[in-house]
Write a structure and sequence with these properties.
Structural class: mainly beta
Order of helices and strands: EEEEHE
Mean pLDDT: 89
Largest sheet: 5 strands, antiparallel
């Protein structure tokens, strides 16, 4: 999936693969050269490159504030 829309802090996305805790929904907490996301099920924080993020994201669940 190509992300042509602007990413905002607070956006909630669904990832293609399930996290080991069972959660698929993640909230974006950092936007820059890397994308920081937090698992909404267990609270784990992960830092991904933009390239890895765009490959792994499936869809937007909820949009944050602009």
């Amino acid at each position: 999936m190509e992300i042509s829309e602007k990413l905002n802090v607070g956006d909630v996305v669904e990832m293609r693969k399930e996290h080991p805790c069972g959660g698929k929904e993640w909230e974006i907490h950092r936007v820059g050269a890397d994308i920081g996301i937090t698992c909404l099920t267990c609270g784990r924080r992960v830092l991904l490159t933009r390239r890895d993020f765009t490959r792994q994201v499936k869809k937007f669940v909820r949009r944050g504030t602009t």
